[in-house]
Write a structure and sequence with these properties.
The structure is a single chain. The chain is mainly beta. It has seven helices and 59 strands. The chain has a 22-stranded antiparallel β-barrel. Strands 5-10-11-8-9 form a five-stranded mixed beta sheet. A hairpin with a 7-residue loop joins strand 42 and strand 43. The longest helix is centred in the last third of the chain and has 8 residues. It is globular, with a radius of gyration of 31 Å. The N terminus is likely disordered. Belongs to the TonB-dependent receptor family. It comes from Chryseobacterium oryctis. It is found in: Cell outer membrane.
Length: 990
């Protein structure tokens, strides 16, 4: 047998690691994966995967672009073990936070992964409207999803994404990397070998609602009232048939059975002159929604030679969302330039610009001004067409059409008059210089920035439920985040040892301002300017400045390319901590053993066996201005108000300790690879706000206390069951489980729970020793010793005096499965993912059940006398129990059993399986492409969220609430529908 030629591959990894590999020049056809692939790690340092002592995963750009998303991050869902994309179901932008390995902090907004673009960390913060998701009946506005930094990144510019899952992997990022890091590398044009390549990516997609609640259309508006003859009836306003029954939002009225009643008549804007057919309008909610559309066109030009590589791109995306008159336009421009000045000096520039503009983004939440609120209150016998004129005759801009309740705003007024505009400019970029001082010694300087300039407007017309004289608001948000890194690196090979070391420093400065102007009431209707305000409120800029200075170091030692040791150290000095505690040090260490090489176990069947382990300690600071007393801006011009938070001048940094171990295997000439990881995180000295006595003049104070432990398991499997010249089939699967436990709480609570947050005043996220982060507390049912529901003598459920644990917002485990089939020029791929257990409370379910809008409320309506007897027992005076026999009116029963405060009966299992995405593509043969003077021509059909199985009764089991600027899992509070998407994509290269 001819001995195949071999050559030496030398991987020079940013001057930090030099690895000699003997690789076959001619790869065998059935060898699938190169296990020596390169991974982008912390600080943008490229490392060989086999040398890493912690778990990482890499997603290539093809995976992101398979099924185009308005927010590219959602394409990661189900594809990475331990990763969760949390969205709020709040509209077209789909703002999201990325979590890796669950929550680690009792501070609910400190659990997100760090986003890093080309080595520069993003702030990725969001400024909210200042309002909670629950605001019904109050003069309040609503949260609006204005997007965050992730939204602004153009997926066409992304080359790859490396996921650094634990704090060991992201230790060099310090406190910002405590929750892991998402390392985004943008395209640079390298590897084009002097040729100029032009690429076009164009797609069109169409959205429809994935899942609707199970609305009932058998009974209409009313509360089971009867006429003088003892028959159920309906009357819009008092009539010859009886009293007015048209003023209720409930649908416990007469059954649709061909009757004729006096109803609302839009031609007279009041009671019909004659009786009209009593009938349902089954499209009176779904018909409001339209087919959403997204059109995107991207063009890029790139090239490279031995000294220079460049790439530039332009992308324009136009979205019209499913809710009428909502959507956005986004323009992206990117530039990448790398140049080798001489043998010692290299320079590089990265620049990304995004402009997002919208005349109207939908508000979300449970309040009069949201379309969710209208959908909840819409009755089966009300035609949607009646609302379309918006304004009553001769009362344009002064009196809306909402004939059934003054609290329910006209849906078309919400869509076309209650506008939430935004004009956002977002810039990221960096300049890096790499200078080779000596043969094995070099220095790198990198300066990067993130700039955000955002102008928002909110318009509320006259006669809206919350603003009888209208409202106009302007918000001006500015954010600047600067990062400067200096890194010295040395490498050397000593016989069998490869040694590299790096030391450097970072200065990060963040500056934030927000100006808020409000015209409360409009002098003239329909004119939205600040001078037209009856009273103007100005909130001057509240600063949010912060600086962190850091030094860090990394040492790597490799032996015979079989054993590796990494040691890192970092020290931070944070401006948000007191002088005595602002300096904090944290180290990490990791090891990797290639057991298959050490014990010479490699064969055709068994290729690779790696054992890895890591340990790290990471510090975490806090938000600015918690050390001394600062006054807040008041709504009254020229005045201030005292803060509610009592400052703590002695705060210490949180400390997170992480331990991780795992093994990687490869079998059958790398056709099968398997990765297994276990980890534990302990977070101590958490920085939390606790209540304090009101007589102190404050409502809360900040302290260090509490410890949380996180444990988890992650597994991934990649395999090629079939691979030959014409056909291949690949399978990628992942499974992850995370458990956290609260080990201690502040002594001040004396064993009582610590409330980390709440939504709507009904669901409380309480921390209890022995419990878990994500535990949901609220009122529920009472049960007899044998597990039966206890009712009172009035036939209604017994009312508990203490809240109890209802469930946990997070699932017991998550899993994902991807398949890809290639046959000649055709490629078919699809991806499933899902989760087991988890719990979510639904405000919409409560209200629609209370009002008889869902099919499960049909039970009992035909009972004699319209009474229903709750299934359960009544406690007798002697303490024993007997069956409940007391009947109550059907509307009363549902209103009580599913009352808003009963978190238990309105919370549901969020287990689900989704066909997350699917794609079929055809790459035209080279003979066809060459005739068209193209190098590549691919046409594809794709889909997202095409199918779902779940028992969750509302729109989507992945429920979360946008509360001001925070996305809170486990609560549905006026959620907007989730989109099912289909589209067509064209890729051209020449």
């Amino acid at each position: 047998m001819r001995k195949e030629k071999q050559k030496l591959l030398v991987l020079s990894l940013l001057g930090l690691v030099s690895v000699n590999l003997m690789a076959q020049q001619k790869a065998k056809r059935d060898t699938i994966k190169n296990i020596d692939e390169v991974v982008v790690t912390a600080l943008g340092i490229k490392r060989q995967d086999k040398s890493l002592g912690y778990s990482t995963e890499t997603i290539k750009s093809d995976e992101i672009l398979k099924t185009q998303n308005n927010n590219w991050a959602q394409s990661l869902e189900g594809k990475v073990a331990g990763l969760k994309i949390q969205t709020a179901g709040a509209g077209s932008l789909g703002s999201s936070v990325i979590k890796l390995r669950g929550d680690i902090s009792m501070n609910m907004d400190q659990n997100n992964a760090l986003i890093v673009v080309d080595g520069i960390p993003l702030n990725n913060s969001t400024t909210g409207t200042g309002f909670s998701a629950y605001g019904a009946g109050s003069k309040a506005d609503l949260p609006i999803d204005y997007g965050n930094g992730i939204n602004s990144i153009n997926p066409d510019d992304i080359e790859s994404i490396s996921i650094l899952k634990g704090s060991s992997a992201a230790a060099l990022y310090g406190s910002r990397g405590a929750g892991g890091a998402i390392m985004i590398t943008t395209k640079s044009g390298k590897g084009k070998k002097g040729k100029i390549q032009v690429s076009l990516n164009s797609y069109s997609s169409y959205d429809s609602v994935l899942k609707w609640p199970d609305y009932q259309y058998e009974y209409g508006q009313g509360t089971m009232q009867k006429d003088t003859n003892g028959n159920y009836f309906y009357s819009y306003g008092a009539s010859a048939d009886g009293v007015n029954t048209g003023g209720t939002s409930s649908a416990f009225g007469p059954k649709f059975n061909g009757q004729y009643f006096f109803q609302y008549d839009p031609t007279v804007e009041g009671q019909s002159l004659t009786r009209q057919l009593w009938r349902p309008y089954k499209d009176n909610i779904k018909g409001f929604w339209q087919t959403g559309t997204t059109f995107s066109n991207s063009v890029s030009v790139e090239s490279s030679n031995d000294n220079t590589s460049f790439r530039t791109s332009l992308t324009y995306l136009k979205n019209e969302w499913m809710m009428p008159n909502t959507g956005f336009d986004r323009f992206n421009a990117a530039l990448s330039l790398d140049h080798k000045v001489n043998e010692r000096l290299k320079v590089g520039v990265k620049f990304n610009y995004s402009k997002m503009k919208s005349d109207n983004l939908p508000a979300t939440g449970y309040s009069n001004q949201s379309i969710s609120y209208f959908m909840i209150f819409q009755n089966p016998n009300v035609d949607l067409v009646w609302y379309e004129p918006i304004w009553k005759k001769d009362k344009y801009q002064t009196e809306q059409i909402h004939p059934f309740s003054s609290y329910i705003d006209n849906p078309y007024m919400i869509a076309y008059e209650m506008l939430n505009g935004v004009d956002k400019n977002f810039i990221t970029g960096n300049v890096n210089v790499n200078y080779k001082i000596a043969k094995n010694f070099e220095v790198m300087f990198r300066s990067g920035m993130e700039l955000t300039n955002e102008e928002r407007t909110q318009r509320r017309p006259w006669n809206s439920a919350n603003y009888l004289q209208g409202m106009y608001r302007e918000q001006h948000v500015k954010l600047m985040d600067l990062n400067n890194d200096l890194l010295f690196s040395y490498k050397k090979t000593f016989n069998d040892f490869d040694f590299s070391a790096s030391v450097g420093g970072n200065i990060r400065y963040s500056e934030y301002t927000m100006y808020d102007y409000l015209a409360d009431g409009l002098l003239k209707p329909g004119i939205y300017t600040l001078p037209n305000g009856i009273s103007n409120i100005t909130k001057f800029a509240k600063p949010g400045d912060k600086q962190v200075n850091s030094t860090y170091g990394l040492m790597t030692l490799g032996y015979q390319n079989k054993m590796f040791l990494d040691v890192t150290a970092r020290n931070d000095w944070s401006s948000t901590l007191p002088k005595s505690n602002r300096s904090y040090f944290y180290p990490s260490a990791s090891v990797s053993f290639i057991l298959s090489d050490i014990f010479k176990l490699t064969s055709n069947k068994f290729n690779y066996w790696k054992l890895r382990g890591s340990w790290s300690k990471v510090g975490n600071d806090t938000n600015p201005y918690k050390l001394i007393k600062y006054y807040n801006n008041s709504d009254f011009s020229g005045s201030v108000e005292a803060p509610s938070l009592y400052p703590n001048p002695n705060l210490r940094p949180e400390m997170l300790t992480n331990i991780e171990a795992g093994m990687d295997f490869s079998f059958l000439k790398n056709r099968v690879t398997y990765n297994f990881t276990v980890y534990q995180n302990n977070s101590k000295d958490q920085i939390v706000d606790i209540p304090t006595l009101l007589e102190t003049g404050y409502s809360k104070r900040t302290i260090n206390a509490g410890e949380v432990r996180n444990r988890g398991i992650e597994m991934t499997l990649n395999t090629f069951p079939v691979k030959n010249k014409n056909f291949s089939w690949s399978i990628n699967a992942n499974w992850s489980m995370n458990r956290n436990k609260i080990l201690s709480l502040p002594e001040e609570f004396h064993g009582e729970p610590y409330t980390m947050g709440s939504v709507g005043g009904v669901v409380y996220y309480n921390a209890v020793v022995g419990g878990s982060l994500g535990d949901m507390y609220g009122y529920g049912l009472e049960y007899s010793p044998d597990g039966q529901v206890v009712f009172g003598t009035d036939g209604l459920t017994a009312k508990p005096t203490q809240m109890k644990k209802i469930g946990n917002a997070y699932p017991k485990w998550r899993a994902g499965l991807q398949n890809e089939f290639r046959y000649k020029n055709f490629t078919v791929s699809f991806s499933f993912d899902g989760q087991y257990k988890g719990m979510a409370y639904s405000q919409s379910h409560h209200k629609m059940t209370e009002q008889g809008k869902l099919t499960h409320t049909l039970v009992g309506r035909d009972n004699p006398n319209g009474l229903i007897i709750g299934e359960g027992v009544v406690q007798n005076p002697d303490g024993s129990y007997s069956p409940n026999t007391k009947g109550v009116a059907v509307p009363t029963y549902y209103a009580d059993y599913y009352r808003r405060a009963n978190v238990e009966t309105n919370s549901f299992d969020t287990s689900f399986i989704k066909l997350r995405d699917a794609r079929i593509s055809y790459s035209f043969p080279k003979s066809v492409a060459e005739q068209l003077k193209l190098t590549d021509l691919t046409l594809a059909l794709f889909g997202r969220n095409l199918w779902m199985w779940t028992k969750f009764p509302l729109f989507d089991p992945e429920a979360a609430t946008l509360n001001d600027n925070q996305i809170t899992a486990g609560v549905e509070m006026g959620q907007l529908p989730t989109a099912r998407t289909v589209g067509i994509q064209l890729n051209v290269k020449f």
